[in-house]
Each structure stands twice: as C-alpha cells, then as structure tokens.
Amino acid sequence: MNTLTARPELLKQANLSQIRKAIIKRRTATRGEIVADTHISSTTVRSMLTEMLEHGEIQCVGFDESSGGRKAKRYQFRPDMYYGAAFCLRDHKVHALLINVFEEIVETNILEAADGDYKSVITGYLDQLITKKNIKAIGIGVPGVVDGCSYYWKKNLEDEELCRADIGEGLSEKYNIPVVLENDMNATAIGFGRCYVREFPEEMPEKTNMAYLHFEKGCVGAGFISEGRVIRGCNNFAGELGLVPMENDLFLDEYMSGSPGDTKYIQTLIKTISWVCGILNPQYVALGGPDLRKDCLGAINDGISALLPARMAAEILYAPDVWHDYYDGMASITAAKMFDEVQFIKEQEKF
Known about the structure:
It contains ten helices and 16 strands. The protein has helices at 8-26, 31-38, 42-54, 118-129, 168-175, 184-199, 252-257, 262-280, 297-307, 322-337; strands at residues 28-30, 58-63, 73-77, 83-90, 93-100, 105-112, 135-142, 145-147, 150-154, 162-166, 179-183, 210-216, 219-226, 229-230, 284-288, 315-318. The longest helix has 19 residues, at 8-26.
C-alpha cells in the first residue's frame, strides 16, 4: 500500500503543496490548468481551491473567455499572505530580506553581527518577524562551502583551516520552518541569470548555461549553472577557482593578491576564463566584484575571442551590482522552498 494513501492528511498536504506551487508558477491559473500541471483529479483541485478561498490564501481575479461552457475562474495567490525570510551573510553584516510568494523582495534590512555571530542576529530578527508575518521558508546565503544545514569557511586569508558553522539546523528546529543554505557565489550566479532572462525573454531559464566569476581581495570565487542547474560537485566545492594552481607554485588567490600589472592581469583572466569555457562551454561568463578591473574587460573579451573557437568562446559580461544579483538569487531560492512541508518524490532507477 502507498504510504501516503494510508495517511489521508499527509496526502492532502502533498496535494495542497503541488496546487500552491502550480498557481505561483503561472502567477494566475484556472482549475483546468492546475489539473494539467499537477495531474491531481479535478474534484480534488476544486475542493482544495474552495478551502484556499475560504482561508484567504487565493483570490479570483476574473474569468477566461468561454469556449462553449461555463467561463473558467482564474485564481491568484494573495501576495501578502505568505512570506519567506532570506539572509545574505558577509563581512560581519546580515542583509535580511522579506520575500513574497512571487519571489519579490518587499523589505530589506542590514543588521550588524558583532564578532561574526550571525546566528544570534538571525534568531533575534526572526523572533520579531514571525509575530508579524506568516513565514513559510528561511534562506541563508553563506560565504563558504555548504554542507546540508552547515557551512565551512576560512577565518582569514592566512589561515587555511576550514571552520564549521552549524547555522541552519537549529533554526529549522526552533521555528519548524524549512531552511535552505546556499553558497553566496551560487546565489549570485542564479540572480544574474534570472536578470539576464528578464532582459532577454526569449532565453529559457531551464536552458541557462553560464558562469559567474567574482574578484575580491585574496579570493576568486565562482558559481556555475549548466542547463538551468547549479553545479555543486561531489563535496560542494565546485567554483573554488582560487585554489587552482598558477605559475611560481602559487594558487590563483595568492597570485591575484600580489596585484599583478594589467598585462599579467589580463593574461591570467583570459587563461582562467578559457579553462571555464573548455570545461563547461557556457553561453556567457559574468565578471564582477570589488577587485575586478573594469577597464580591462575589453582586452579580456578580445583575448578570449582570439584564443578560442567561436562555438567554444563565451560572451563576456560585466556584473555591475553584485548585491542586487545576490539578493535576487536568494529571493528565488527562498521562495522555491515555500510549501515544501510534504512532497512527492519520484524513486530513482538504480544502476
């Protein structure tokens, strides 16, 4: 017997989760569209929609044109009903974002985290927020390697030891709300990719192939997306470009910290980007960060075009507002975690 069939309340929650996601994805949806998207019976969808209307979750925003029978009602989520709380951690500061179900940022706050005590700051903020808003998901962007609800980070540039911070598990237990952690570079890549698709609507998000390279003092990081999916690697270390060996037995982080002249700088970035192109073949590579030399971008683009075959060379783009992209990425990641209380999981075929 199917486990969910034996537990009607669990099955109802799973169906409700799918229906909510279907409406949010379409922005507005008819009952027929929801049935087509979820493969849930029309009777069940009708019953769920009635409950959601009674609870004030959704509202009717009009009728579709009649095709001979009754006009189909079109439903939309109320944007002020549910929210997500996203946090971007960086330099002893917590950037707190309030997200609605449509992945829109409706409020931002920047909080000080003395001595890097991010968890206390996040907890204090959430304690107040959940008394005013119905929070359905928590997202945390971290400057380190994500491992479930924890992450690894370096205390300083000189110390190679990785420290572990258990930040997510305690929050999930305390608030009984789904928590998702994401590496800051991955979140920034997601945000940049989303902005690119908005600017060029003909591009399909599920076909996104891109790389984001970030340059900051003593640190070269990256986020990679292939066919719309973030590349994380076996142990979530994908994107740690700063650990790639360079000349004179130096890693890329160390080499860039030495402030090479423009000629060497351009050659190094051409070499680094060509590696990325050779391995991932992205459509475009976005470059950003406070230590990026913007006046060298033209020469870098020319160098890539001259070095690589046309079908292998990526378009070089400039990411002028890293925080905007980071915010946008975390808004998407956090909103996607809403309504994940119960899910249908398709069993994978074994090799």
